[in-house]
Amino acid sequence: MPALSTILWVGCAFVLGYFLWKTGIGMLRSMTTPLPPPPPAGEMRRINVKYRCSMCGLEIKLTLAPDQDPPPPRHCLEDMDLVAPIE
What is the pTM of this model? Predict the structure, then answer.
């Protein structure tokens, strides 16, 4: 009769193998699912504006927005400053 520790090791190996199998299958399935359809036309508009935080100096470039003149994003609990529209 095998020792109890051998049975525990084999049981742990089966549990770990099952976990790895399910994780691998889930990852493969996530790569094969199609991308969601794009939003309807006119919902998001392409823009090119640059904002800078007056507190810490962080700069971001905004490329998509729901309207042509979006409100400034917030950073450091303050509205960011418009640097310049990028042409």
Answer: 0.48
